[in-house]
Amino acid sequence: MTEMRDLYPFLYSGDPGSGAGGGLGDVLDDVRRSTVDKANEIVALRRLVLERDGARMASCAERMAEVFRAGGRLFTFGNGGSSTDAQDVAALFLNPGRDARPLPALALTTDVAVVTALSNDVGFEVAFARQLAAFGRPGDIAFGLSTSGNSVNLIRAFEEAMRRGMLTVGMAGYTGGQMAGLEGLDHLFVVPSPSVHRIQEAQTTVFHVLWELIQEAL
Amino acid sequence: MPSAPGQMARLFEKREAPGRGLANAAGEIAATCHSMAIRFHRGGRLFTFGNGGAATDAQHMAVEFVHPVIMGKQALPALSLTGDIATLTGVGAASGFGDVFAHQLRYLAQAGDIALGVSPDGRCDNVLRGFEAARHRGLLTVALLGGDGGAIAPSPAVDHALVVRSDDQRVVKEVHVTMYHVLWELVHVFFERPSVLVPGAGL
């Protein structure tokens, strides 16, 4: 790899030789090393996910493909960064582009009127559960993403989905949190990392691979 | 389903090289973070944008900066230009979808702000036009791209182009997610050392 000093020699002009740490050149070096470390971490984490969950991902994709074959629909949800992942999942299924087959999918996080109404009138913990109560039918899919596994509104949504006979798919991190103890959850993928960021990155791979398997199956 | 284990290994294998490739961009990422931290230090704000799946990345980045997942990190001002459906559809209907990001940057952004656009193939016209509007306003411009970088990578409107060399848009996206997590984290490394953010620090 090219040395930082070769790439950005001008950065070192005010920080000659073995000057005290903390100058711009030193910070840039630290930051560069940190990026390399993180690249290695996520590559290793993906390998671990494949080892631990590869077979279970295949069976989950098979079940989801059966749902779509039977006319079922996908509902996705999550909070914060995971809400954007939920939207990414829905967008990927509904509008995959190129030659891929569009499938019915809706993110429950995009309707700000509904989310704020439920949160204001009842509480944020019912935001996704009430939406599933309105939309969900037996044979649909409830797909929730969390990093902690402890989001109360996700737990409530999965409970509602199970009552309604939906296929339930969850993603979590760390050791799975409360989602790991949720009786009756059909598929749970736990990314075993202490970093929220690495968890989200590996989860992105998991839902992309699920989609790729489903497209190949249909 | 076809042979599950082999198929699964193949799907993960294609992600390995682009994932490792991120390390090769470490120098450019460091320089990008430094430029961004200087803008934040001076009161600049971050505007993010992209289409389709990349629109969700834009929103993810904004929440990352405004509401950090690591306790104690300062909230920094960031706004995704993909979140306001009234404006997106209003501008789209009135002057075409190509203008949706450029319009918002022309009227919301100021010199000293940062424009960060995501285009997995480097060919999104409205993202390029967003960068051009941002350049005109005097913003720092950062592009997360894929494939060969398309028309956006070589554009004079782009200060920092981070390109994931893969034609698989899902693989590109996965590396982008790591990239912007790293950008967020390392911007704070500089931001917390004000001595490297003032004139005379080297840039």
The CATH superfamily name of chain B is Glucose-6-phosphate isomerase like protein, domain 1
The shape of chain A, in one word, is globular
Average pLDDT figure of chain A: 91
Distance between the termini of chain A: 43 Å
Query: Which homologous superfamily in CATH is the superfamily of chain A?
Result: Glucose-6-phosphate isomerase like protein, domain 1
E-strand count of chain A:
5
* Number of structurally distinct domains of chain B: 1
CATH architecture of chain A: 3-Layer(aba) Sandwich
Distance between the termini of chain B: 56 Å
CATH architecture of chain B: 3-Layer(aba) Sandwich
Say what oligomer this is: heterodimer
From the alpha carbons, calculate the radius of gyration of chain B and give it in angstroms: 17 Å
Total beta strand runs of chain B = 5
Class of secondary structure makeup of chain A: alpha/beta
Please state how the strands of the largest beta sheet of chain B are arranged side by side. 2-1-3-4-5
Strand order within the widest beta sheet of chain A: 2-1-3-4-5
Kindly report the average pLDDT value of chain B: 94
Q: Give the proportion of residues in helices of chain B.
A: 40-55%
Pfam family, one (chain B): SIS_2
Organism (chain B): Actinomadura alba
Protein name (chain B): SIS domain-containing protein
Domain SIS (chain B): 36-193
Report a brief summary of the structure:
Chain B: It comes from Actinomadura alba. The complex is a heterodimer of chains A (about 220) and B (about 200). Chain A has about 220 residues and is α/β, with parallel strands linked by helices.
